[in-house]
Each structure stands twice: as C-alpha cells, then as structure tokens.
Amino acid sequence: MTTTFTPPTTTAHPRAPHHVTPRDLAVLELLSEHEVLSTRHIAAVFFPSVRAAQNRLAILHHMDVVSRHAWGHPRGGQAEYLYSLGPLRALVRPYAANRADLAVVAAAHHDERMWRLVANPGLRSTLAANGLFTALIAHSRNHPATRLARWWSGPRTAAAFARYRIRPDGHGVWQAHGRTVGFFLEGDTGDDQSLLARLAGYRHLPAAGPRYPVLLWTADPDRRDQVRTLLAREHGPTVAVAAAADEPAGRIWYRPGRRFLLGQRRPCQLHELPSDHGPDTAANQARYPPSAWWPTGRLPQRGSP
Predict the structure, then answer these.
(1) What angle do CA 56, 248, 264 make, to 5 degrees?
(2) What pLDDT is attached to residue 104?
(3) Three-state SS at 2
(4) CA of 89: how far to CAs of 31, 92, 110, 142, 242, in Å?
(5) Can you give the pLDDT at residue 207?
(6) Taking the complete model, does pTM exceed 0.70, yes or no?
(7) Region Disordered: which residues (predicted)?
(8) DSSP conformation letters of 241-253
(9) Spans of all domains in the chain
C-alpha cells in the first residue's frame, strides 16, 4: 500500500497568542520539516521583502514561537539569523504536540537544542540545500507556469528511500513548461571520494524506485568544472552539476559526459533533465504523486498575513 502524507490543518491552539496568523503557522510547518531556515529563506517563501520577514520573525521570537541564532558567513559579510521552532511551538501547532521533538520545553533546554543545531557539521550543507529550494519557490512567484510540487528534507528523504541507503540533502519535484521532474539534491563537500561513495547508492534506485537526476550543488564554478571532469567517465545515475551562486531554475545544469572533455556540452534547465517517477508499486512507496508537501496544496500569497 502506498503511504501518503496527509498534512494537518493549521488551526491555532486556544492558549496560543491570539495574533498568530495563518502565515505564521505556515512558517512553523516549514520549520518543523526543515529544522533550520535563515531569514532570507523564510522571506523568499512568505514575505514581500527581507525587511518584512525580519520584523515579523522578531515578533515571533519575542513570543517564544521561534528561536534564533546569529549566523556569520564563512567568507565574511553581515550575519543573519537562523530560525528553528521555539519553546511554544506545540501551543500554536497542537496537531504535532504528540511528537516528542515538538513538546513544550523549558527555554534553557530549548536553547541547548538550538546550539546543537547550529553546531552540527552538516548545517552548512543543509542551509545550501534549503537555499536551492527557496530560490525555486521565489522563481515560481514570478513565473506562474512553474511550481515546486514537493520539497522534502534530507532526513525525510533518507527515511523514505531507506532501502537504497541514500542520504541526500533533499528531494524535490519541479514542474515547468508542461514537464514534471523529480530530483535528489547532494551538496558538495569538496571531497572526491566521498562524492563518488554517495553517488554509488543511487545506482540501485532504477530497479524498483524512481529514476531521478542527482543535482550536485557546488561552492563555485571552478569546483563545478572539477566535478564535471571527475564524473565524465563514471557510469552511474544521471547527474547534473551547477554552482550554488546561480539561479537553480535557470540554464545552469551541466550533465557530465565524455563530450564535456571536448568542450561540446552545454548547460540545460532543471525541467529539461530526464526524470521517471518509477513503477507504481509497493516497493516504490515514495512515488510522486501522492500528495503535495504543502498543507493546503498551495503556498500562501507572499503578502498575506
């Protein structure tokens, strides 16, 4: 039997602050799935500007609905806040109160949880992955014919595809120009052997699961070209490589292959990559669709409360 995700309704708890809005509840739902999001990530999904997001998130932080931590960029520049669910998260999200990770906790213990999140060695990859997905959502707001139909976190994806022992940083389904393309996202750490080892698990997916491309999100164009050369003679899953500074919905995705060595390979757009959802069988329980990742099936309007 296919397992489907049935999102709960976003109704505030009677003990919650009375001025928590539907948009606030949607922010909390996203934080529940992805644990840590930056101000810019949240602004791209829900708000008309970064300033508007900063103002509202500051209020939610004061209400203990969200927690935040100042995050500095590795190459310098102005820091921004990272947000996670706050101590009162179960009061405004009662449908999740039975989950151990969403229970109301003392503020001091919650601060410890936030510190563990920001000290996680994989945090940078998580933020980069969330940046790709929120950039796709921002693109879709200006291009109504496009849509991010599914956005799953790394842990949720790993659990759904546990039999294949893959651990991507995320999984999504992108719709554009009449095509629906599923993909797995892998952040690049700069370690060639680690990258090859992680890609090896995807070779088993076509047997019973989806045949989705693996997107490799590199730190810069130089590393992107190094990865293209590394994978030029590899026989494995469909892979597309791009630099994280680029617009993910744009014509930036390179498919490594022998022709790259001759300089004949041009980039393509995300919706142009080959994609197959796989057989509709019990062995492919995470097949798309059954349901969209968003509670209402649609994102809230960017300027709505």
Answers:
(1) 165
(2) 44
(3) coil
(4) 10, 6, 11, 32, 36
(5) 80
(6) yes
(7) 271-305
(8) EEETTS-TTSS-B
(9) 22-120, 124-284
